[in-house]
Amino acid sequence: MLTIALRFPAGGRYHATAWGSHANEGVPEWPPSPWRLLRAVIATARWKDSAVSCGELPRLRSLIDALATAPAPRYVLPIAAAAHTRHYMPLGDDSTTKIFDTFVHPAADRQALKNGDATTVPLLILWDATLDAGAREYLALLLGRMGYLGRAESLVDAQLLAAGTATDTVNCRPLAEGEPIGSEEQTFKLLTAQSPAEYSAWIGARSDTSREGGARAKRIEPPADLFAALHLDTDQWRGGGWSQPPGSRWIEYVRPATSFRLASPPARHRRRARSMESPTVARYGIQTPVRESVTKALSFGERFHDALCSRSDSAPAFSGLSEGKRATGHDHAFYLPECDHRGLLTHMTIFARMGFDENAVRALRSLDAMWSRRSPGLKLLLLGIGTGDEFAELPILRAAQEWKSLTPFVPVRHIQRSRSGKPRVDPEIGFIRGSPEHDLRRLLIENGYPAAEVIEPLDALELPGRRIRWANFQRKRRHGEGAAILSHSGYGFRVRFPHRVSGPIAVGYGAHFGLGLFVPERR
Known about the structure:
This protein is an alpha+beta fold and about 525 residues long.
């Protein structure tokens, strides 16, 4: 048996209109039909496996025939929300038409959220097809290369799971003839493919009846075999007079009656009891065609600071000023960047221990775009505003014992030397006074963290898809009235405390703007 897992990384949304429905009817196809999946496998092979024509794909033909011959697949459906957006699309002649974009949004994976990943719960497809080792390997290759399923904006992460992988209980299956329907179940239809033998028999029967003439004879001739029929575009079979794709058939399925839940309203429209505690955290998603590198985190933090100060008339939470005087301590806003495995900025979290007043909250809600020379059209999506407890699952706010640098720590003190020029050593801890390690330990204690047991230097930021040296980061503010930088050097460290401490941890020069940021070490 084959077990295929599908995830939808582009906002967790699956965009597809059910076969037989108009796009503006707002009927999503859930789960993806076997017919759609077979066509997606063929398209992936044609475009990403260096194939030019059908005749050059004997291995693909054999794979498709095996899947079409097998019984219709069963599904394990995650809890999902069905929703849609409405917008006007230009037609090119100064007119517009109203479009309904229907999509399904599976629930987020709670375990992945704990690890700082917004991955959705996978949809599992169980297909009782018999494939040899070579065919399984080829199918796994094509699924790994599949870019989208459904509409083009419906990006997909498809994977063939290892044989014997444990799965949850099947909750969507073909309805057997005469099978009773439970009170908490509903029936619907999915489009699947005929087997190659059934298609050949249908072609032969049609050839006999077409000689008699009539309306059937006016249609274009269907392809010679099922593999070729799966290649037909929609306008081809519709233009040829067919009511559904040649080689396809409808199968009645049964699924839970509550397979969809209503999508939650946006946070800004949701009524909730007023809390006496002021919000301290705001989190944004960054949407741009060209993402900026985490090496520009300092500049990015400065731009956030300037934008929010201008929108809030320099609210104390953003400016650090109270009645025109600079506040002491570090209770005003920290601008904390987050990046993906390639080191590209994906989110920005703003944390202020003093809390956001109403003026600051209005500024946070109004910020939806930002100027960027490298990333024109940079948009910001406010994901939420709340207290630290409400965002406790974010990695930078989580409690951990070991932390490592995400952005370089820039010390604010010089190395202390004796009159002879020899560095002075702190006898209690063995560090040279004023060294980066000594300065980091001092600043952590001054900011209320316990004395670190271990401070280990790191040569670079190690990411799954990239290695970035600290010298590649911007380490000096372009403007502002912050403390003068004593050194242009940046350093990375792994720090272990005697017990778990809660984030965020950002110290050193430029800490409020993204430098000196530490994240929990994953083991």
